[in-house]
Amino acid sequence: MTHSAPAIVILGNGSLATARKIAQLYPGALIHGLAERVEGADRVYHEFGATLRELYQQDTPIIALCAAGIVIRTLAPLLLEKGAEPPVLAVAEDGSAVVPLLGGLGGVNGMAREIAAGLDVAAAITTSGELRFGTCLLNPPDGYALGDLELGKRFVSDLLAGEHVRIEGAAPWLAQAQLPQDAEAHLSIHVGSAERAPTANELLIYPRSVLLAVSAGVADLPQTIRAALRQAQVAAQSLACLLAPATEMASPTLREAALELGVPLRFSSPAGAASEMARRALPGATIIPIDGHLALAIAEQPLNVSQIGQPRGRLAVIGLGPGAAELMVPAVKAELARATDVLGYETYVRMAGPFRPDQVLHCTDNREEMQRARHAFELAAQGRSVIVVSSGDPGVFAMAAAVLEALHESSDPAWHSVELEILPGVSASLATAAQAGAPLGHDFCVMSLSDNLKPWSIIEKRLDLAAEADLALAFYNPISRSRPWQLGRALEIVAQHRRPKTPVVLGRDIGRPGQTLRVITLGALTPEQVDMRTMVLIGSSTTCVFPRAEGGDWVYTPRWYGNKPLC
Ligand code: SAH
Fold it and tell me: Which residue lies with its CA nearest to atom 13 of ligand 1?
């Protein structure tokens, strides 16, 4: 079973040395350190329990450098839920003990041995089968699937009770195991791709050695594929991937079929008849044509799917939120983990990191938006998994529109076949508003004051009408060195419609180190108080301010609207 890189979770600086040693064993492993206690971690967290549970639910292997009891108590509420379980280990902070806790079928004992070897100690393995046979029979390596877990458990307990076993088929990973083998044994481990009825005296392990090529236009694909496998007497568990013509890349039918069958989808070009595609993909395999549209290729060994055809490329335009990791949506975190290529303005790419050594970073200047969008499609069309990074939300004065414009302009079918997704983020106006209270609690208007991409006359007109309409206002890109006078002019226009005591919120570097939040009035606002890292929120006629107990002010715009303002 393949998992993502593990998370190494530590509570104090005392564990850092051990954590770093373990991190060296797993490329891509990140050290998560408790805020204000750990310096130099890859990720900072604030709440141990919530962090551990989130990692567990995302199926991330967890190596916690703390007492086993803490980990058990923290994850206990989640343990009764069914579903896949990532490996979870507790490691003594000085590296003197390695205790596998959960995820026996996810390879936790193997990880415990690897970590123990790295730390030069013994792993605290307690699994009987593992201890006796030196392997977990119910957790075959990548490329193999166990037939039935419940039957398997009984099989292993029979072996532990003293039964002997014989091996049928190729099981290279068992060569090192200490199994009580006997050619005459009643029990057998059977490795093969042929369909077999499960019985109590056979541990069935299926190599993922079968490819199914499908040409085009097959109705009810998952059913048809299952029927084809049955007809050829091939076990569904041995199906390693579907292969389809590259021209069918965007087909939802194919995507859903692959999802339902739980196998990856690969694409072949040039297109051709199913049996021809199958033969080209796996030259040495046995080809079984099913009908004009389907063909099976059966190999001796598990397939290396990454070398068959190409996958459908993916392009995700993501929003990081204002900066703080807690304000990044989980879908974006998952996307960052799966990306092969990351494009964006260098500051944002750095904010999105750290990245693994195998992830390629393409940092560019902030102004080359269309060029960056085209580059992203070129990479994705090669089958890569590409991310374009924006701060805040990618659809708010950021990369999403440029990416769609580049696609709209293109007639390249390979670009249009890319799986494109826009993942939202918390935009600066919303992050700033939340810190101030609810200044955007009623109707509001969002504007960029930059006249780089639109005429200033349009900006003036919109400001005038929005201010007249008594909308609260949120200004992005309020000022810059090359646009020094525009904000002053904008404030003059707003002042024609708003009282000088109208509340104003200035949020600078919100969600980032050194953030500042100020509440002032329109009358007191001057362009010198604002720079390009500032969000300017201007209240409407009903926006109120009152003091907070802990100092500072709350700002809100009530939901109701009337002519008897409270403030
Ligand atoms: N896509 C981004 C906005 C990009 S425009 C988003 O949705 O937030 C850049 C402008 O956004 C900056 O000039 C500034 O006005 C504002 N901004 C971005 N991040 C900010 C932050 N962390 N704090 C305050 N303002 C920010």
Answer: 477
Task: For residue 174, give its domain range.
Answer: 144-207
Question: Tell me: the pLDDT tens digits for 480-532?
Answer: 999 999 999 999 999 999 999 999 999 999 999 999 999 999 999 999 999 99
In a domain, 269, yes or no: yes
Give distance in angstroms: CA of 435 to centre of ligand 1.
15
Look up the CATH number of the domain holding residue 441: 3.30.950.10
- Helical (H) or strand (E) element with 34: strand 30-34
How many Cα atoms sit within 13 Å of 479 on the Cβ side? 19
* Residue 383 in domain: yes
Q: Is residue 495 a contact partner of residue 522, using CB atoms and an 8 Å limit?
A: yes
397 CB less than 6 Å from ligand 1? yes
- Alpha helix (H) ranges present in 382-503? 399-409, 413-416, 428-436, 456-468, 486-495
Question: Counting beta carbons within 10 angstroms of the beta carbon of residue 457, is it exposed (0 to 12), middle (13 to 18) or buried (19 or more)?
Answer: exposed
How open is the CA angle 462-463-469, to the nearest 5 degrees?
85
Task: Give the atom of ligand 1 at the shortest distance from the alpha carbon of 511.
Answer: 22
Is the CB of 322 inside a 6 Å radius of any atom of ligand 1?
Answer: yes
The 8-class DSSP code of residue 310 comes to B
For residue 105, which of 130, 139, 129 has the smallest C-alpha distance? 139
Counting atoms of ligand 1 from 1, which one is nearest the CA of 395? 1
Quick check: is 257 in a domain? yes
- Three-state secondary structure call for residue 434: helix
Task: Tell me which residue of 86, 195, 207 sits closest to 141, measured CA to CA.
Answer: 207
pTM: 0.81
One domain for residues 436 and 422 = no
For residue 360, give the H/E element and its range. Answer: strand 360-364
425 alpha carbon to ligand 1 midpoint, in Å? 12
How many domains does the structure of the chain reveal? 5
My answer on whether 239 and 334 are in the same domain is no
Q: What is the pLDDT of residues 306-330, one digit of tens each?
A: 999 999 999 999 999 999 888 999 8
